[in-house]
Amino acid sequence: MIDWMSESFFILLAWIMIGSGVVTMITLLLGMKAHYGRYAPVNARSIPARWGWLIQEAPSFLLPAASFWEAPNLGCKVIILLIVAHYTNRTFIFPLQLKNPKPTPLSIVASAFVFCLWNGYLQGFYHAWYYTFEPGHFRQPISILGFVLFFGGMAINLHSDEILRNLRKEGETEYKIPRGGMFEYVSGANFFGEIIEWFGYFLVARSLPAAAFSFFTFANIGPRAIQHHQWYKEKFDNYPRRRKALIPFIL
């Protein structure tokens, strides 16, 4: 019988996430696309995008927020607060700021909800129940670097989202070339920011669940940045030639 609250179960969840990340990366690099936004099937059963974001992201906010009160010390609470800070925006603020969003396919909402349920439980309750760290952990150089990357990546992600929102005027639906901020260097500036953010989270926490989520984020949205880059180049003849897909000046 599975003990849903044992440490070994959380470790299993983390390793499954890493394995899922490998499979996800391979399938995306081979050409599979996430069926929403510009890649959504025309006749897919869908719901309004704002409701879709709220529903699918809610577990990633609610479960860590609930686990916060069970965390035994300030260190554990700090780790959990990093998750809560990100998903406060992604669950409640980001959906309200969308302009003329396309409906989101129900299949995407359902799959994202399952992942957020899984990850919210893993990140929140593992760090509330089983996470331990030595005195001075947050003063170590690697932890300080992690905080810098987390909040720096979050700033890039938020700024990039703002640029994408403001590309369209009221009533417009066509795609345009994003410019400004990290978009001057990469097509997936919002993805780049989020990857940096969760890598910083891993450097702060240095736990297997944090590593699993950081890796899965890279494996999931890294290839999508490459897909977006190729799509932009095919759609726009004047797309900036020096702009890379995900990593400035490199990839």
Walkthrough of the structure:
One of its GO terms (molecular function) is 3-oxo-5-alpha-steroid 4-dehydrogenase (NADP+) activity. With about 250 residues, this protein is mainly α. The chain has one domain. Helices cover about 65% and strands about 0% of the residues. The protein has seven helices and two strands, in the order αβααβαααα. The chain has a two-stranded antiparallel sheet. Helix 1 packs parallel to helix 7, helix 3 packs antiparallel against helix 4 and helix 5 runs antiparallel to helix 6. It starts with 6 loop residues before the first helix and ends in a 16-residue tail after the last helix. The mean pLDDT is about 90.
SSE inventory with pairings:
Layout (H helix, E strand, L loop, with lengths): L6 H23 L16 E2 L1 H20 L5 H24 L6 E2 H24 L11 H25 L23 H17 L2 H28 L16
Q: Keywords for this structure?
A:
251 residues, mainly alpha, 2% strand, two-stranded antiparallel sheet, endoplasmic reticulum
